[in-house]
Amino acid sequence: MTVPKMFDNDDYSKTLWLLLLIAAVIILAGIGLRDPWPADEPRFVEVAKEMVNSGNWFFPMRGGELYPDKPPVFMWSIAALYWLTGNLSATFLIPNALASLLSVFCVFDIAAKLWNVKTARNAVLFLLIAPQFIIQAKSAQIDAMVACWITVAMYGLLRHFFYKASLAWYLVSWAFMGLGIITKGVGFLPLLLLIPILTLHFTGKHRFSKEQVNWRLLLGPIAMLLVLAAWLLPMLHIADTSNNPDFTAYRDNILFKQTGERYANSWGHINPWYYFILSVIPAFWFPMYAFLFSKPFWRDLKASPIMISLLAWVVLVVLFFSISPGKRGLYILPALPMMALLMGAHITNVGIRPWFRRVLVAGTIVFGLVFFVAAGLCFSHSHVVAKELGDDTTKFAWLFLVTGLIWLGILIWKWKSMDLYSFGAAFAITWVLYSTWGYTLLNPIRTPAKGIMDTVQQDIGPAGELGLTRFKEQFLLFSDIPMTHFSYLTAPQEQDRNAWLWMSEKPNRFILSIQDNSMTCFDTSKATQLGKAHGRHWILLGENAMAASCKAPDTIKRYHLPMKRTYQ
């Protein structure tokens, strides 16, 4: 593989800092240029905002109501930066950006230790090229952070078993598994690496030293439990002594429903068992998996216990998530850094063969065509893009056209000598364009709740009070006025009954909701139409839309959200 001069050395520090600089430019580009985008970002940012506003950092809350779906670690990171700076829009993307840069460092450093600097360089190039890694690094979803903790844990295990026996690093890996668990329950996944390692050891195919495999391995779970206990014990104590049924419900939900029950009997994102293999990996892990179809890779694999262990772990992780009926593409992100490490080792051994160059050329053609087709659809104001981007699609057409020309230019330049550097350069430029030009174009479209909340504030006037039913978190996040809601977790019709009761108690109260034929206690034909946001039509209900009577709610639930510090 032809190596550009800037990479043409085996100096650990120079290569590492150059790669970290490139990764930082790609990942940090655009921070502060956009707001939180659905589906998950407004939720996590709103929870973080409420932590700072309420002073309650231990139990995550959404609209003053406990948010029982996730532990608080990721929200803590956003809240801490908000508390320090007072600015959410400029900081909410930073935690995942820093976590992803740490993942890059771990991949580079362990590759350099297990093999050499060239392998480390190639592994990081694969990682930065993989679309899924950058997508999550530039978002405010939990998965990039939990993937980072899992990567650190894998780093510790690989360092102990394959580089140099180190009880300290072994215990660190278990501690980060604990941190991963209290970030998102799957933090234990590095444990699966012990299956191929111990299999190799006890079958005699690769004997580890007594310093690497001995009774001290049993100390690992203690390190993990200590980290778990730092969050779990106070949470259990508060839930048991508070006499607050919401805290008890949070405890039960987070420990049982959101862990084993969600895995075994998922109620959302239902996909077939082959979903990751056919729908996620081909596009989002390109082009690493291409080596799985080459004979040299399997010959290389047989000669390396490290590569055997890495591939076995990646397969076990994908299998683990494939068994559960509930699947989202980002679930398998934690396996991506180790896949990059594995393929970086292989390509360093065999170099870029002609067939792989053709794969990269084909990928360049496909990605370039996608942008040219998108540009054509935007120039022609096609309904296909207009329904997602709004009526003014021409401004997006220029972005797509410029991006397509970049891919075309690199294709022409490197037609016969395409390599990871050229392919990666096309991606790097694309990400920077998307994170600057693209963010400014997309942000108004991805945050329509801001405009709706401005309209609502004008419609209800300074004396009006606002309630919400069937709402999305972005309406809480982008509001400058106090609001009342009737439990996000309650059935919609029960929310309607609580909302009607609340409105009947005092004049000049209004309800913001979606246009829904199942709504009870209100006549939606008398509602004020507010417009469409995130695929739904939103309405404002006043006193004239209230039914003459309404069945009493089974339980009166009201959560009031004062706006001490608003989103900025």
UniProtKB/TrEMBL annotation:
Residues 69-230 form the Glycosyltransferase RgtA/B/C/D-like domain. Its main location: membrane. The lineage of its organism: Bacteria, Pseudomonadati, Pseudomonadota, Gammaproteobacteria, Oceanospirillales. It comes from Marinomonas arenicola. The keyword Repeat does not apply. The keyword DNA-binding does not apply. Keywords: Cell membrane, Glycosyltransferase, Membrane, Transferase, Transmembrane, Transmembrane helix. This is Glycosyltransferase family 39 protein. It comes from the Bacteria. It holds the Pfam family PMT_2. PANTHER family: MANNOSYLTRANSFERASE YKCB-RELATED, UNDECAPRENYL PHOSPHATE-ALPHA-4-AMINO-4-DEOXY-L-ARABINOSE ARABINOSYL TRANSFERASE. The chain crosses the membrane at residues 15-33, 97-114, 144-162, 168-201, 213-233, 273-293, 305-323, 329-347, 359-384, 396-413, 420-442. It is found in: Cell membrane. It is a multi-pass membrane protein. InterPro entries: LipidA_mod_glycosyltrf_83, RgtA/B/C-like.
